[in-house]
Design brief:
CATH class of the largest domain: Mainly Alpha
Shape: globular
Number of domains: 2
Strand content: under 5%
CATH topology of the largest domain: Four Helix Bundle (Hemerythrin (Met), subunit A)
Oligomer: single chain
CATH architecture of the largest domain: Up-down Bundle
Number of strands: 3
Helix content: 55-70%
Strand order of the largest sheet: 1-3-2
Distance between the termini: 40 Å
Order of helices and strands: HEHHEEHHHHHHH
């Protein structure tokens, strides 16, 4: 019988990790492996296996897994432990409805505290998105653009939830953006969003964000529906 390859074998670890950096190194290494598909959906990540791989105790591993769970990249499943989350969590429309609520509130709280440096950084991300052709990088830049507008919100718990949704979207876009043809379509939305934020028009900026996310969920839902088997479609 052919033995299934161990997904952890795709993760290179060079040399001992300093104790004070262990959690962040493990978190970043596993996040990259999840985002680029080396750790596929459904992969179980056992604490002891990871501790052995990185040459550390289980404590920093546990902390890293907790952070990745907060970013919606992992789920904790009974009898399996931490498992790499699916690309789409449940109903896309429900997911985006929640994102609209959370991101609108973060934007509302953040806009009065944003400064020219924040706006310039957001504009650079848009410029980079305009010329970027690598779909993994497009997903990353999209996340960074949105977080630049949200990050001044003083509610840190809210920001963690918002960022978790953006990590989930980045991962989905990495694997599906080319097929969806979304790469160039979102930049005018981003520029309109930035202009409204620079004008400090909170109501208009939130409305533009809601419209932007609603357009996104329409395209994603249409794309996901196109992937369903014909038999399943006809039965719904």
């Amino acid at each position: 019988m052919t033995q299934k390859p161990n997904p952890l074998s795709t993760i290179p670890v060079s040399g001992p990790i300093p104790a004070h950096l262990a959690r962040s190194v493990i978190e970043e290494t596993l996040r990259s492996a999840i985002l680029d598909g080396r750790l596929p959906c459904g992969t179980a990540l056992r604490q002891q296996d990871l501790a052995d791989l990185f040459g550390v105790s289980r404590m920093p591993v546990r902390e890293a897994l907790r952070q990745l769970e907060a970013q919606s990249l992992l789920h904790v499943v009974a009898h399996k432990g931490a498992v790499v989350a699916p690309l789409v969590e449940g109903d896309a429309a429900e997911t985006y409805a929640l994102r609209i609520l959370l991101e609108s509130e973060a934007l509302r709280l953040s806009i009065p505290l944003l400064d020219d440096k924040d706006f310039a950084e957001a504009a650079r991300y848009i410029d980079d998105l305009e010329i970027q052709t690598d779909y993994a990088e497009i997903g990353r830049l999209n996340r960074l653009f949105h977080m630049t507008l949200y990050r001044k919100a003083p509610n840190r718990r809210l920001l963690k939830l918002v960022e978790g949704g953006l990590w989930e979207e980045e991962r989905f876009l990495r694997f599906n953006l080319e097929a969806m043809g979304l790469g160039k379509l979102s930049q005018e939305d981003h520029r309109d969003l930035l202009r409204a934020a620079q004008a400090r028009d909170i109501a208009l900026t939130v409305t533009k964000l809601e419209n932007h996310l609603n357009r996104g969920v329409e395209v994603i839902t249409r794309y996901l529906n196109s992937l369903e088997p014909q038999g399943k479609k006809s039965s719904t």
